[in-house]
């Protein structure tokens, strides 16, 4: 893609997405083309980033390594459900992923966590997402009991209409009351600062001081500055 074509495409896309300037969109187009070239060189010639390449990019660039979450992030970026992330979807998704407002990130995270797309997060979905995120101690008999207890605590705190599931309105209100709950069911954003497990559990009133059996296993990475420094600043200097 030559420079003029890139500039024209960037001008059109920059009018349709939030948070990025035209010059930044140009940089993101070039980055997308680099990723596409790497994908096509491996023999996967498609018109957008396929699931494998997209997820490997989340791993390598943004440090997101939970396969249960990265698969959902792919589906959230792939808005037309054609099994690839197009250039427009890539840039549109990154606008929220990197620079979204709290309201935009609430909508994004809820979509990631709504596994079956029924506009609610059920008990079963919470159990599925939290399974494996609690560390079992050697003397514990049933590792699922701690997860079930945490789900009930989450529902007690976040289920404002008491219907046994989280609607978008429940999730939105809970996160605005306590921002730490934005990624309560798994890391799906790259900009969450490192916080200790006890702080998140404390926000849920989880009785960690009385029961040391489990602690949430969350790994948070600070990758936005690195990505933007490489893609935007270095390419703008070229």
Automatic annotation (TrEMBL):
Highest taxon, organism lineage: Eukaryota
InterPro entries, per the entry: EF-hand-dom_pair, EF_Hand_1_Ca_BS, EF_hand_dom, Recoverin
GO MF: calcium ion binding
Gene3D superfamilies: EF-hand
CDD domains: EFh
Record-linked Pfam families: EF-hand_7 (PF13499)
SUPFAM superfamilies: EF-hand (SSF47473)
PANTHER family per UniProt: CALAXIN, CALCIUM BINDING PROTEINS
The protein's name: Calaxin
Record organism: Oreochromis niloticus
